[in-house]
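User:
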Amino acid sequence: MVGVIGRLIPREFVETYLGGSSPTSSFLATLIGAVSYFATMTEAPFVKTLITLGMGKEPALGLLLAGPGESLPNWLAISRVFGLRKAAVYVATTIVISTITAYIAGNTIWRQ
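Assistant: Predicted structure:
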């Protein structure tokens, strides 16, 4: 599946929207991680494929942070158990924290 995705997604798209170390690219990668469903450790080859297509380290970290904690099925389960309002707060908080963490780590730790 990862190989197919690597062939379908144009390099220019990845470099434009997920390349570099901007807050926008980190946010978009975090959103991808938040809505995608990954079985355990299948996000790592997916992120590696995106990195070979031009994804930056910061967005890669954002996707890896958001991926295991969220997915669309996870959103639905949380909203059924805790209600829509609490699920929305959970999802928004996870996305914001993952984005900020990826951006800060990328611009402090990896820049040295």
